[in-house]
Amino acid sequence: MTATTGGPSLPQERRVVTAIPGPKSQELQARRSAAVAAGVGSVLPVFTTRAGGGVVEDVDGNSLIDFGSGIAVTSVGNSAEAVVRRASAQLAAFTHSCFMVTPYEGYVEVCEKLAELTPGDHAKKSALFNSGAEAVENAVKIARAYTRRQAVVVFDHGYHGRTNLTMALTAKNMPYKHSFGPFAPEVYRVPVAYPYRWLTGPERCAEEASAQAIDMIGKQIGAENVAAIVIEPLLGEGGFIEPAKGFLPRIAEFAKANGIVFVADEIQSGFCRTGQWFACEDEGIVPDLITTAKGIAGGLPLSAVTGRAEIMDAAHSGGLGGTYGGNPVACAAALGAIETMRELDLNAKARHIEEVMKPRLLELREKYEVIGDVRGRGAMLAIELVRPGSKEPAPDTTAALAKACHSEGLLVLTTGTYGNVMRFLPPLVIGEELLNEGLDILEGALAGL
Ligand SMILES: *Cc1c(COP(=O)(O)O)cnc(C)c1O
């Protein structure tokens, strides 16, 4: 590969040679402001030229340590070899035929792989789409067609996308929903077991939260009217909340007992991110349907709904699809990404990232009172920031901490209902030195708050 190639050949080093963002990025930002709608934001307006392994390079020659993976997408690294090889070959062969016009093998092969990799050994089928939101919308369509019921149950702090139905499913007003209503009907929200913020404490959280959720479903909707319960097994945008152990199995059992389709939204947590193929495996959950996207195709747009064959087949022929859904280049990329996950054992890599990062984050919590909680699994980890001596969320501190990290060349993302969670989503192929250097920067930034 030449020196101008990104991917694994990019020098794996942090390099800060200008202010962040630098002068060339600032020039581009001025052009962007004139041409791009203001509603589309960016975490850090440095303009990317190359990326790979654990770094992102910008137009000013800075090289940032990547703790974001483009929001949990480039788990196999940017421009991973197998992704580039397979997608390039497909690009040269044909770019599109529309699976609904003339089909192609890559689409079928991705569906076969999804059947193999997702939990449960029952007969499974899949349908492919472009974005995560589209997958969630289609999971709801399928669940409604199967059950002939309408209501959908979602949870506090849940995030499922930005289209009209998925905005309704998403909990947080700002920035996702504000001024964009009215929202789709027949969506009901119930409590989730958020151990750090459960009023009676983490020990009783799973039992009380599941009892409350189930009681609300029965009293306010009627279980017999519920088509689907949709939940992220590890909540992403809501703040990397791990539902207290026992909560998910209780909700899944309730769904099963009442003929409700249990949908695991693993768009952020799936594909090796938490050290398992899917986060719900940690509690032995076998979802009826599972939605995937983000990490599935090494950066190309692809999403899927996978689940029990009899549920997936409930929608009439022609009822599911879309012009670009399961694009052949994206399918080729997904096959390359899955090949990489298997060959490099990225589940083991994710678990190793946790082993390196979590003890250091826990040490930081002992040292810095602003860190109220450390949580997450694998390479999906977070710290929740609070006012010292309380649990009051500290969004300003979180923003200041992110800014300090950015200026030192560490790309971090914030999240959470209260805007007070800093999340860490490094590519699973990141080197250990970069990982530790990133944590050093974080510690320096905490010390300088
Ligand atoms: C990102 C995300 C979505 C939406 O995916 P898009 O590709 O942005 O539409 C849905 N659910 C979860 C859990 C996500 O993290």
TrEMBL record:
It catalyses: 4-aminobutanoate + 2-oxoglutarate = succinate semialdehyde + L-glutamate; (S)-3-amino-2-methylpropanoate + 2-oxoglutarate = 2-methyl-3-oxopropanoate + L-glutamate. It holds the Pfam family Aminotran_3. PROSITE patterns: AA_TRANSFER_CLASS_3 (PS00600). GO terms for biological process: gamma-aminobutyric acid metabolic process. PANTHER family: AMINOTRANSFERASE CLASS III, LEUCINE_METHIONINE RACEMASE. Belongs to the class-III pyridoxal-phosphate-dependent aminotransferase family. The keyword Transferase applies. Its EC number is 2.6.1.19, 2.6.1.22. NCBIfam families: GABAtrnsam, PRK06058.1. InterPro entries: 4NH2But_aminotransferase_bac (IPR004632), Aminotrans_3 (IPR005814), Aminotrans_3_PPA_site (IPR049704), Class-III_PLP-dep_AT (IPR050103), PyrdxlP-dep_Trfase (IPR015424), PyrdxlP-dep_Trfase_major (IPR015421), PyrdxlP-dep_Trfase_small (IPR015422). This is 4-aminobutyrate aminotransferase. One of its GO terms (molecular function) is identical protein binding. Its cofactor is pyridoxal 5'-phosphate. SUPFAM superfamilies: PLP-dependent transferases (SSF53383). The lineage of its organism: Bacteria, Bacillati, Actinomycetota, Actinomycetes, Kitasatosporales. Pathway: Amino-acid degradation; 4-aminobutanoate degradation. Keywords: Aminotransferase, Pyridoxal phosphate, Transferase. The gene is gabT. It comes from the Bacteria.
